[in-house]
Amino acid sequence: MQIGIIGLGRMGMNMARRLLKGGHEVVAYNRTYEKVRDIEAEGAKGAKNLKELVEQLSPRRVIWLMLPAGHVVDEHIDKIAPLLAEGDILIDGGNSYYIDDIRRHAKLSQMNIHYMDAGVSGGIWGLKVGYCTMIGGSKEDFKYIEPILKTLAPEGGYLYCGQTGAGHFVKMVHNGIEYAIMEAYGEGFELLEKSPYGKDLNFRDVAHLWNRGSVIRSWLLELLELTFEKDPKLENIEGYVEDSGEGRWTVLESVKFGVNATAMAYALFKRFSSREKDQFSDRVCAALRKEFGGHPVKEKG
Questions:
Q1: Which of 272, 234, 268 lies closest to 254 in space, CA to CA?
Q2: Is 150 annotated as catalytic?
Q3: What band does 147 get if pLDDT is binned at 50, 70 and 90?
Q4: Catalytic: 171?
């Protein structure tokens, strides 16, 4: 299947690579053209601008935006929409707020351009293991792009979640849960670190052990094992933990719907406090974000 990809960052580049390996024809655009050259060398067609990208795609066009949430997405949509034909599909695969999806869908519908939202999880490991993908939009459009989703995801790793905004809403909640799980691991390892046994414990071995049959085993714990192997006491990074929006939106929605999301709210607020002091639990969370998503960390020194 033919697809245009706009945005070749940590996720977009590897998604393009996975689609190429799956036999799809990829036309790619990125503001920094060096990345376009990189993916061209791997078999994609490159575009120097949005007009060139659209011209290289045959109707019915499918264009996947992999951009930072917010005005950047709106800016690209405003530029590319006049270049598209009726029935073409624009997919926002970034971490956008579902409220923005509803607004964009209404605007594009007036031009008979179809809009879908895709919540994507998998980070920098997605190229190898696949991307868990949550889709919102019309069921008919979902069926049309399903060959792309099958290639991007591991087996059973994509789901039609409902009408516009549903994909990003489910991904938002997913990330709120992620915040809480990471915080629990962070607090647990801080307790171990400060205990009388902390000096003798090898945290890499503890993480490895807990992933062998225990009830708290997880992929995040596997990543902690890798993290502790490289930096046993996390001495080379600061416990400064960023948040990228979804955690805040999850807490806002929990207030709106009267849901007691205590763990997720606390995990979000703890990230705020991490920017004022350096705690071991925060270094665990910062290290995990680097491992699963390639997010930068603040190094000491």
A1: 268
A2: no
A3: very high
A4: yes
